[in-house]
Design brief:
4 helices, mainly alpha
C-alpha cells in the first residue's frame, strides 16, 4: 500500500492526526507495504483511538498485527450495524 493510500484511509476514518504522528515509523517499518487496504479499513473501523496524542507506534502496530491475524483467519465476530 502506498503512503497516499494510507493517508487517504486514515483521513477517511477521521484519524488524519494519528497518521501524521505515525507517518515516519510506518514508513520506516514497512509494515503496511504488503497489506490489503480492506484489512486496514476494517481495523480502523473496529478500533477507536480517542486520544491520538497517547497512541504510540509500538502499541498501534501490536494491535494491528493481532487484528490482521484474526482478520486473515476469518475469526471476527459478526457486527450487525
Amino acid at each position: 500500500m502506498t503512503e497516499q493510500q494510507l493517508e487517504y484511509t486514515f483521513d477517511l476514518f477521521g484519524y488524519s492526526d494519528l497518521f501524521q504522528k505515525l507517518r515516519y515509523p510506518i514508513k520506516v517499518s514497512g509494515e503496511f507495504d504488503n497489506v490489503d487496504i480492506e484489512v486496514l479499513e476494517s481495523f480502523l473501523d473496529w478500533y477507536v483511538f480517542d486520544n491520538t496524542d497517547k497512541v504510540l507506534f509500538d502499541d498501534f502496530i501490536y494491535h494491528f498485527r493481532i487484528f490482521k491475524k484474526i482478520y486473515e483467519n476469518n475469526n471476527l465476530p459478526y457486527r450487525p450495524w
